[in-house]
Amino acid sequence: MRIHILLKALILLPVFGLVTGIVNAQYKISGKVMDDQNMPIRGASVYLENTLDGGTTDSTGVFEFTTSEKGSQTIVASEVSHAITGLPIVINGDVSGILLHMKTTSHNLQMVTITAGSFDASNDKSKTVLKPLDIVTTAGANADVVKAIEMLPGTQQTGPDNGLFVRGGDASELSILVDEMVVQNAFFSGPPGVATRSRFGAFNYQGVSFSSGGYSARYGQALSGVLELNTTDMPDKSTVNLGVNLAGLYASATKKWKKAALDFGGSYNNLTPFYGIATTNFKFYNPPIGYSGNVRYVWKPNKDGILKISANGSYTQSGIAVPNPYAGIQSASSNFVSPFVGLPDTIDFVTKDQYYYSNASYKQLFKDKYSLYTAASYSLDSTRNSFGGVPILEKDQRSQFRIEGKDYFTSRINLLVGGEVQHYGISKDFADSYRQDYTETQLAGYTELEWTPINMIAIRPGLRYEHSELLNKSDIAPRISMAIKTSANSQVSLASGIFYQNPQDLYLLAGLRPGQQEAIHYIAKWQYTKDDRTLRIEGYYKKYEHLVLEHDTGSFDPNGYRIITNSTLVDNSGYGYAQGLELFYRDKKTVKNLDYWVSYSYIDTKRKYENFPTEATPTYIANNNLSLVTKYFVDKWQTNFSATYSFASGRPYYNPNNNPNDASQFLSNRTPDFNNLALTVAYLHSFGKWFTVFYVSIDNITNQHNIFGYRYTYDAGGNVVPGIAPTPIVPALYRSIFFGVNFSLTQFKKDEL
What we know:
Elements: H1 2-16, E1 27-35, E2 45-48, E3 54-56, E4 62-67, E5 71-79, E6 82-91, E7 95-102, E8 118-121, H2 132-137, H3 145-149, E9 174-178, E10 181-182, E11 205-211, E12 225-231, E13 239-245, E14 248-256, E15 260-270, H4 272-277, E16 283-299, E17 305-323, E18 346-366, E19 370-387, E20 390-410, E21 413-430, E22 434-454, E23 457-468, E24 473-485, E25 490-501, H5 505-509, E26 517-530, E27 533-551, E28 569-587, E29 594-608, E30 624-634, E31 639-648, E32 652-653, E33 669-670, E34 674-687, E35 690-699, E36 710-711, E37 727-728, E38 736-744
Parallel strand pairs: 1-7, 9-12
Antiparallel strand pairs: 1-4, 2-3, 2-5, 5-6, 8-11, 9-10, 11-12, 13-14, 13-38, 14-15, 15-16, 16-17, 17-18, 18-19, 19-20, 20-21, 21-22, 22-23, 23-24, 24-25, 25-26, 26-27, 27-28, 28-29, 29-30, 30-31, 31-34, 32-33, 34-35, 35-38, 36-37
């Protein structure tokens, strides 16, 4: 036991800077904790004041621990639903028979939780923001997890781009994880300038946690935030689910045994019917077609352990005619390096994508005091594209292993220690003659302590170590967050930390090796929650340092899909900032069956990075973003109505007629404001044992012609052709109608809608 106490102190040393001594004599302290009704209290922390010595009561209220302290001491008991109590004791040897009584607090100030920078959508109803059917039936989300997150503060309307853009960062600055493991290529493959769906089905996950900054030391390699998806545990019962819609059909089934369960399913997608009734902005001469399959096994060897193993794979193909980003340019130059130079203004893009992902994890709790979590994953994405007859072959793969343990010293203090290793690589072949590739191995170790000295205060310091084999560079990232309860229903949360990330794939594929990029986050949030109403106001400042910056690039190339060579001069002299204010209000109480939320974000951001000739606001940034989401269930009709209005102010775009070296002109033009109104209607019905949901969704009801930028036409010398109006960059379609039906042997409930 003496060794165990010493280990606790040594582990806490790097986190808090505590100093402890080696002691000799050990005395056993034991007793019982009861409430004011003379009933035993389980899970109470009992400790000697101002020491690390203590224990936790069992189901009968009994505690026992050892200490080296002597003389007059105060023994303290604390538990979240009772008032803290203490008793003076004298230690001259073993002390037994101690009896501590704790009073129940009828108006208890609940233990504070740290939430700065994060939205939690877990199964915990006290924290839930978005549930699976919430995501599926929210108008405008299109049953896409990532699209639904765009309706929360801190995000941008992505338009024709894939990814989640968070607080001034581009899509590469956010990491998406499944059961704590990084997902490589989280979106389906598609042509440049046409956004595709994420690969995640809402019903596969029991929790969605979105952090737009100041996230845990458990994760790294993301300058802006993380989106963490937690797969479902043991299902409640065996069931079968079927679905048919304009995009195809799917089927899944679950077989549950006493301690295990097996899930399996498959889908076939063919968007020919969808594009057959839609008016598109691009020609889909081969509408997307694909199929997928998945299997998952869950086993609970005991009440506190769970094993989850899953695998899924998919194949998709499509053909679409899209604008050539190098329209009019007849030959490559130092300013424009691309295999698409010299091709027609509109060119055919064909994609054939094979994707595979597998994940295995095991979690075990030991004696309510220690926990162990370990996981491994592997993904492979193989894409065979053709752009105007130019073959482009790409292969991405990633393997990862993670292990972490947690020691619950008391109910108020626990320590997490873990590590991970990732090995991944990307290769690209252009026109069967030009190849770019790289492989990387990253090692990381981390520790994080959670301490709640009293119910109204929580502190979580953390430290993360990262090493990049590719860059031969190691970094240490300290982080800290805390929360203070300001009333029974409100709290203030603070967070700060340093976050590192490798350079973009654009540079690593070219054989360039600049150093790690860095961001420092400062976040403050106030939140009030009462009776199914939540109001939160959050402010932040993010400082970018050591961003990759190109030199001597000549004219600015606005194409986000450009290619550079290993002769490009780069370093880490780039910099930038992002600051903003966000508001979120949700009300599920005022009107029966009505649920609505308002999300607003203001951002001010500029940066000088990549090939920017001067500091400017990036083209994916709208300074103002607003979402209004409403859902109303009509009991008599068993029908749910959901409407979403989204607004974003105009975003910058590159005008080559302006001087890019003049900060007042570069990216100074703005697109028109973005407006979108969406509606979803879902009707519940049952046919025998089958519970069904019929749904229809209309996106962009008012048929707004939203614009996300402009393309200019160039002559053979790479100069803008005068007199020709620029071509707007638009989504694949303006207004869309989508409908389908879901069948299940498990009943849908209106409160899930």
